[in-house]
Design a protein that fits this description.
The protein is mainly alpha-helical. The chain is about 70% helix and about 0% strand. The longest helix has 29 residues.
Length: about 210
């Protein structure tokens, strides 16, 4: 254990953490879309959690990449991380992670500026947000092929559980329609004014009394 560099331990830990957080981000986005949680979580709360966990995933990914740059064993350069297929260690597996990175960043940026783009920004975000679904398979493949802990029993169980849950949520997204937004009915109360009381003229009163 003492012979293993702390950077290598941090690379492994941050990589698994980034993958797990990305998985939660996808789950939360599907929960927001399908509303399977019902009244247990409001759309606003789900959206805040979706964005917050997404930021944590990017932070863990930044730690993962930053540690690769300073690790004395693998000795990655910036270009080797950003250009798929040029890595000195397991180039194919590293390329999968690079592609996942390229798929994650645009969605995150668009999600934070879409409110400034108006209606066109929202429409563009809905189309581009589909990219996030492709980021997860690439990140998972990178984890399986490059992760030194990927074949551990706990890791295999985690991957199977995440994949099964994701398939279930995707099926729910495709076959379970989200609840329609019902506008609150407006109760209109019509207050009818009382009928005017007909007052008899002075001659009629006199005539009724006589």
């Amino acid at each position: 254990m003492n012979d293993i560099a702390w950077t290598w331990l941090l690379i492994r830990a941050s990589g698994v953490t980034a993958w797990a957080l990305l998985t939660v981000v996808v789950f939360w986005g599907l929960f927001l879309r399908t509303r399977l949680l019902g009244t247990k979580a409001t759309p606003v709360a789900l959206l805040h959690m979706h964005r917050w966990v997404g930021s944590l995933a990017l932070l863990a990914l930044a730690v993962h990449i930053g540690t690769l740059l300073i690790d004395p064993v693998v000795s990655f350069s910036v270009s080797q991380i950003l250009i798929p297929g040029t890595a000195p260690w397991q180039p194919f597996a590293t390329a999968l992670g690079t592609i996942a990175l390229y798929l994650m960043i645009p969605v995150s940026i668009i999600g934070r500026i879409r409110t400034k783009l108006g209606k066109k920004g929202n429409a563009f975000f809905k189309r581009s947000h589909l990219i996030a679904y492709f980021a997860w398979p690439f990140a998972t493949a990178h984890y399986i092929f490059a992760g030194t802990d990927a074949m551990a029993e706990w890791s295999i169980g985690l991957i199977i559980a995440a994949s099964t849950t994701l398939i279930f949520l995707l099926l729910a997204r495709g076959f379970v329609p989200p609840p329609s937004r019902r506008r609150p009915s407006t109760l209109i109360t019509v207050v009818q004014s009382p009928k005017p009381v007909e007052t008899a003229s002075e001659p009629d009163r006199v005539r009724a009394l006589t």
